[in-house]
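Record 1 of the preview.
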Amino acid sequence: MALAAGSRLDSYEILSPLGAGGMGEVYRARDTALKRDVAIKVLPEYWSRDPERLRRFQLEAQAVARLNHPNIISIFQVAQHDHSPYIVTELLHGETLRGRLHHGPMGLREILDIGASIAEALAAAHTGGVIHRDLKPENIFLTRDTRVKVLDFGLAKLEAGQAGTPEGDAVTVDLTVPGYLLGTVGYMSPEQVRGEVVDARTDIFALGVILYEMMTGRHPFHRETSAETMTAILNEDPPPISQLSSTTQPALQRVINRCLMKNPERRFQHASDLAFVFEAISEPAISSPAASTEPVGKRFLRLGIVSTGAALLGMLAIALMAYWMRGEAMPTVSSYVQLTNDARAKQLIATDGSRIYLVSGNDLSHTLRQISVSGGESKLIPTPSPNMVPSDLSADGAELLMVEASGDPPSGPLWAVSVLGGAPRRLGDTQGNAATWTRDGKVLAYSNGGDLFLANADGSESRKLVSVKGAVALQNLAWSPDQSHLRFDVWDSPDHPSVLWEASLDGKESGPLLPNWNKGGQRDSHGLWTTDGKYFVFAASGQIWALPQKGNFFRRQAKPVQLTFSPMSLGWPLPSKDGKKLFVVGRTFRGELVKYDSRSGQFLPFLGGISAEYVDFSRNREWVAYVSYPEGTLWRSRADGGDRLQLTYPGGYAVNPRWSPDGRTIVFFEHFPDQSSRILAVSRDGGNAQRLVQNDSHQQWDPNWSPDGRKIVFGGDSLNAASAIYILDLATRQVSTVPGSQGLYSPRWSPDGQYLAAISANDTILLLFSFRSQNWTKLATGAVGWPNFSKDGQYIYALAGRGTSAVLKIRLTDGRTERVADLKNFVSTGHFSDSSLELTPDDSPLLFRDAGSSDIYVFDWQAP
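->
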């Protein structure tokens, strides 16, 4: 709705346009009832028909109306005219901070005054449960009488529990969801750039950017494109203020640097604290010769004689403030360099100072390799057995501690293998999943299942230290610097999602390392101590974190600090021997669906090589279902790729979709980060997925239809020995247990309905259940997975890994096994880190090949 001068808007007479403001046009108007000039912001007419934009407009009105503060613009009325909403505010005379910045850097006293005013405005807003989220110079107004006003709360977030109206009713809360960006790119905090849920500290970061501009005349992160600017916000430090400003003030520089910390835990936690800091540094700032020639400010500048006692108290307050501002000294990383470019999956094991030892590949195919700490091509290290996986390096760098792994989870005998070659040494009778030596080389710690053991370095005199109830395996063992504790990962199980644990050497203390700390429900793992023993670095939520060895006087319990803010997923942190570097693996996630062509012996792109796994075809071959990677959403389309429809949305990860015999329904299970799962069914035409098994006591994995479509067979987690095979009767919704199926998983129903195939959770044995005899028989042994019946029901195709690495074809009548495709050099990927195996309608193997990247990067490490 465009308004002309002289027109009326209810009781307001439009005087002149003032230009665009946020999400609407702003006009100067006369309040004919109260005889005062006001500003009116009106939404465009087409915007008012958009419920989302209208809701944001209403949010701004609610947010500002509830805040009564001299540094926040006053709101007088919210109304509608001809179906167009508008908001009436006080009329301001002056210029925006952006206009002021066009004249260059500002004087110190002016910066302190304006900064304190903005901080106090934010403190009032945050106390009222309002987060601005779009703070920038355009939204800060400097009036002619030297007042500061914060404007435009159009992207405000009202925090739940605090955003009540004066009558106590809750008002509209956050308009956005995680993963959806709102705000102005250059002023977004790192967490805002990543689309995460933000809190009041995001406004403090934006204020830091503004203060930097006021002091230097330059934006700290501005680049040529928005994408480059966001990357700089996530990964780069701004140029030091001292290099850009001729008149610097060290205390103010420290304030700005603290506001711009990438980790919100290391910023000022409350805007009111920031306002106090501005007050505290105002007095010494204006008494200095450099400050006396700067523009005169308006606030907190108390001239006159100060008593000796007050002066001493002021000095003490400033000293305490400086100590408090410094906070807990924490390490930082910077200036990363990429060391490899082969993109192959990697896990870092150890470094001797000149070389890095790593595992390259995955469960289907892996090799032991080494690379110089300065980068270059990695070199293969031959191992006595293809199943050997390194777990640690001796302190002198002469021997690798290795597990000859088999089964799921992988475990086996422990060996010491010279890095220069030669016969391996068997370490006593030890058997385990992972192991590590102490720094003095005298003690061996190793895990087997959920048990942690200690032994002499050669494996003799073994004894159990602790047991983690319900754990499947303990991995990535690490000794504390004083060798009094062990830290390790507890592998996934229904009762224990993979997290870091700690156990004392005497076995009296054992439990989660960070019991009350959780980053988005995602695991924390792969931890190692730095060489000086001051920090424990580990991976969580795809980033690298550091945990101080101890807290400080005020904070007894040390808290993790986030070191990296990378758009890549980072893991496997490895501190350098000299304590100056930190090596990590950076990964991007993408796969390529491929079909094995028996004529050429090659894997060729299928369905255009889409990044999708868990593929299944309808019985009439007209439809295909698949799961997008890494999003985990279920889709269906025609067999030629047309008529695509998304059937699920982000939440859990859809796994193992299976078409009903009539081609109308798809059954699948949804997998969640806490390792819980549930079986669902969804119509081919879309709609809400329906849960089929309500009893959470049943593990709900791998659903498969009976040939007549009346029943569904399902099992449990491959890592859980308590898994069993169940059958759901869809008519009665009754669940029964298949006899003798304890410890089995991955059930598949034969096309003729006479058999079930399943795998042993302990020994990875492929078994066949006959409904006629009600007995299980062994069909194949070894590391096999992902069984699939051929269309004629005469064979089972399965994956073999850990040394054999192939697609196998197993005949039901006698168990005769044929190698269909060699996977020795096939690099797979997927939700469970390895490839699934499916079959096309003509029984050609479908696999999911890694098309992402996984390379080693090195950061400079700085510690206080």
